[in-house]
Design goal:
Layout: H1 8-11, H2 18-40, H3 55-71, H4 75-78, H5 80-108, H6 120-131, H7 153-168, H8 175-196, H9 208-227, H10 237-250, H11 257-278, H12 283-302, H13 304-317, H14 321-359
Helix pairs in contact: 2-3, 2-10, 2-12, 2-13, 2-14, 3-9, 3-11, 5-6, 5-7, 5-12, 5-13, 5-14, 7-9, 8-9, 8-11, 9-11, 10-11, 12-14
Length: 360
């Protein structure tokens, strides 16, 4: 298909489910608080938001639903390459900004970024790997994260893989085969949860393939919610669904923790997507949901540079409980404000420019 003849209408995404956008923002904020708290409490059972990492599985499930909704009926018209361009324009500017911020934090961390541990050549390769989303877990002082400069990028790597598989396979197969794949994925995820004792993997050197298991099931589950039109009409609204989402992210640890996490991912999150798609949004929450949805991805992809600095500060200064409460609360607010500036001053203009260029 000749890109010069593509209709601008075909390149536009369809309308958003605003409550689901709002829930994405709640999940992103929870991830930020979780990342603060895991530095303080390495024992997750003592962390009040110790299951905040499950927000990533919620993102994956929501992504499957949204991709199916936005592209199932038009990927055949725009073509696979245009689909990839759309996803790159949507996702990659913030991948780059997160990498730049991580690089700056490495060099200018006032509490000890330790760039001297690596050297110019290795730092350049780390930056290029981060920008190109090539996992390279070599930074020992950063727990061998797949992406040492911007840790959350591991989930974007798998998001890209899911998008590629969707474009070449999933968009072409019927619901029966999707169900079979989802059941297979559920079995794989169950094995991962049982062996690891949790569903936290994917981010680091020793658990790379766990990330594949997590997105393999959740993306398919979200896609199935859309394909089967499992939209549950309800009056829970944004507030009610936010509470239901947070319940999964703040649930306590117990003996059968791996099973609880597994059930949340296998059943609870797809149910929340179905409820969120069918819930009524009151006028009072509309602006909040729109803002929450817009800020979620910039916040997720730009906050971790501050986490490296906070980790070094915590190790060197050992702040008390009250001071920590102020830092984490204030830090979350400041990071939200910063991500808004990144979105307005960088992400939106860049995406508009790239979209205009491809439409010519």
């Amino acid at each position: 298909m000749n890109v010069n003849k593509l209709s601008p209408d075909l390149l536009k995404t369809r309308q958003h489910f605003e409550i689901l956008d709002g829930l994405r923002g709640i999940a992103a904020l929870t991830v930020v608080v979780f990342h603060f708290m895991e530095i303080v409490y390495t024992d997750y059972s003592k962390n009040f938001v110790g299951h905040g990492f499950l927000a990533v599985d919620f993102f994956f499930c929501l992504s499957g639903f949204v991709i199916g909704y936005a592209y199932d009926n038009r990927i055949g018209k725009i073509g696979v390459m245009e689909f990839f361009k759309s996803r790159l324009i949507r996702l990659h500017p913030l991948v780059i900004s997160g990498s730049v911020l991580g690089l700056l934090a490495l060099f200018f961390d006032p509490f000890g970024g330790q760039p001297q541990l690596y050297g110019a050549g290795k730092i350049l390769l780390l930056f290029l790997a981060s920008v190109l989303l090539i996992p390279w877990p070599v930074m020992a002082d950063r727990a061998f994260n797949q992406f040492g400069l911007n840790a959350p990028a591991w989930s974007l790597f798998w998001e890209y893989i899911a998008n590629i598989v969707y474009a070449f396979i999933l968009c072409r197969i019927n619901r029966r085969y999707l169900v079979i794949l989802a059941l297979l994925a559920a079995a794989v995820l169950s094995v991962v949860a049982y062996k690891a004792g949790n569903l936290m993997g994917g981010w680091g050197k020793g658990n790379f393939w766990d990330g594949g298991a997590r997105i393999f099931y959740s993306f398919l589950a979200g896609l199935l919610v859309f394909r089967f039109n499992w939209i549950i009409k309800n009056r829970l609204g944004f507030a009610g669904l936010s509470v239901l989402l947070l319940l999964a992210l703040v649930m306590p640890y117990f003996q059968w923790n791996w099973l609880a996490e597994l059930l949340v991912v296998l059943c609870y999150f797809p149910l929340l997507i179905a409820l969120g798609a069918g819930a009524r949004l009151t006028a009072g929450f509309k602006k909040l949901c729109v803002f929450s949805g817009k800020i979620s991805y910039p916040l997720y992809m730009t906050h971790y540079a501050a986490m490296w600095m906070f980790g070094n500060y915590y190790a060197s200064h050992k702040p008390g409980t009250v001071q920590l409460a102020v830092i984490i609360t204030g830090g979350t607010i400041l990071l939200t404000g910063f991500s808004y500036l990144v979105m307005v001053a960088y992400d939106i203009p860049v995406r508009k420019y790239l979209t205009a260029r491809r439409s010519k």
